[in-house]
User: What shape does this take?
Amino acid sequence: MKVLICGGGVIGACIAYFLSLRGIEAVVVERAGVANAASGKSGGFLARDWCDGTPVAALARRGFDLHAELAQGSERDWGYRRVGALGVVAREGRDVSRFGRLAPPDWLGADSAVHGRLSTPDTTAQLHPAAFTAAMMAGATECGARLVDGCVQGFALSPDGKRVTGAIVDDAELAADAVVVALGPWSLLACRWLPLPAVFGVKAHSLVFDYEPSPESLFADVETEGGEAAHPEFYPRPDGTTYVCGSSGEQGLPVDPADVEPEPDAVARLRRLTACVSPVLAASNVLAEQACFRPVTADGLPLIGPVPGIAGAYIATGHSVWGMLNGPSTGEAMAEMIADGAATTVDLRPFDPARLDPLDPAALRA
Assistant: This one.
């Protein structure tokens, strides 16, 4: 059996990894490089129980446990470690002592206070997202998977239009027994050729500082003197850097993932928010100013499963902020579905693409 996976982000890499463990030939097609989009620019924060009470709970719990197993069983280092998370309040130029419930880390500024502990290392962890995605892809290729540099331009179907037989990549047909759309927000383009619901892209900006404080992740509620209010997140990493995110953007999704660029106003805003929480962090060297688009769906749940009415066609995307967490559990479940006809580790019925109406292809031409 040959499975063609469209997309070299964390979802595509994990699907290839778990398929290859079963001895199934997996071919990953990627136009802009492994982890080039959100999978290389996300925070890499993992939470076992933060999705409890939602349809994503079982997927998240399985994903968290799989991350621990993968890290323990691999000689590769992708920065996995257990960390706790703190809730922070920052009000620029104002007294925040009334919010203080815990002693703040020494890298926080005078305008910040810790109002509570959000988690302990028992239930939250982190990793470097680009390193993890690359490791999953490397593990897949070691087991026989292939990575193809190319652009997916369409899908090949049987004469009756009811079965996928491959994909058109750089004007040539690549034959396959099954095809998986795992293109993140660019999965929207697949609606031209397959009856799929819309996938949208939400732009987010991030900064990477050359600074390593204490390891706790911070989730902040910030108000600046200029009236800006936001909720930036801070993720110190064991490689000596700190990742900060929390500023959106105005630009729409480009056709080519390589064309995603940070917006100067959004970057400047994130710098101001960072300075409000931690002046010492804001004064350190910035290694990267970056942006990415998170894939989301109309109802906020991922699309994981078969494409309605097209045998052999599947989709796996729409994980929003939890793509890194749910990459392994999605990859494992998709491998089960493709190989065995059904997933057993996680119930994928809440994520059935058939629950949403397919997008009219004419909407993409408007």
Q: What stands out?
A: The CA atoms of residues 9 and 35 lie 5 Å apart.
